[in-house]
Specification:
Length: 195
């Protein structure tokens, strides 16, 4: 599994970047929001968080500028029935991650259905299934006792398939060891603690 890709931009088109690393050009599909944020220029260096999707007739690499974007992408695919990589990319491209979280927490299907390709029923299903899944919404709701890094790490572990209670315990243990750790560090430390 390719989880991160760092290299030179060989080609950049909206929704697709070719990254050269070790003499190999990797085609990475990116949401428009990521493309706009990175503003990739051929010849410049890039560092992407990635997810490799494998089907019987296709291997695709999806890239994101932040762990949070990748976590929401994985949540949509893993926890919402009928959402595949293309629809998850479309949703990320149509709404910033923070706004998406607010829409889910508020149960605002009207705002969700404004995303191109997301109808009212799909919007309602996304909200219903994410609200019903183990604590996703509670993790997104503001909790002054938990830092952004700890919430993001918890969401990341949940996106990897861990139950919320286990993810929270792992993140809390990691925070005791290193109080200033960022979300990716907390995820790594949490995974080590779970093994």
């Amino acid at each position: 599994m390719i989880a991160r890709l760092k290299g030179e931009i060989w080609e950049a088109l909206p929704g697709r970047i070719v990254v050269g690393a070790g003499g190999v050009g990797y085609q990475v599909l990116v949401p428009i929001s990521t493309y706009d944020r990175l503003n990739p220029v051929e010849g410049h260096q890039i560092d992407l968080k990635t997810y490799q999707h494998v089907r019987e007739n296709l291997i695709a690499l999806y890239g994101f500028s932040t762990d949070e974007e990748r976590d929401v992408f994985l949540l949509l695919m893993d926890r919402v029935s009928g959402i595949g990589p293309a629809m998850a990319m479309n949703i990320l491209g149509g709404m910033p991650v923070e706004h998406f979280k607010q829409v889910v927490v508020a149960g605002d299907a009207v705002s969700m259905s404004k995303i191109k390709g997301v109808g009212k029923k799909t919007a309602e299903r996304i909200i219903l299934e994410l609200k019903d899944k183990v604590g996703v919404v509670q993790t997104w709701e503001s909790n002054p006792e938990r830092s952004d890094a700890s919430r993001d790490a918890e969401m990341g572990l949940m996106a990897l398939g861990f139950k919320q209670a286990d993810a929270r315990k792992a993140v809390d243990r990691a925070l005791k060891e290193n109080t200033g750790a960022d979300s990716s560090e907390l995820i790594r430390m949490g995974l080590r603690g779970m093994s």
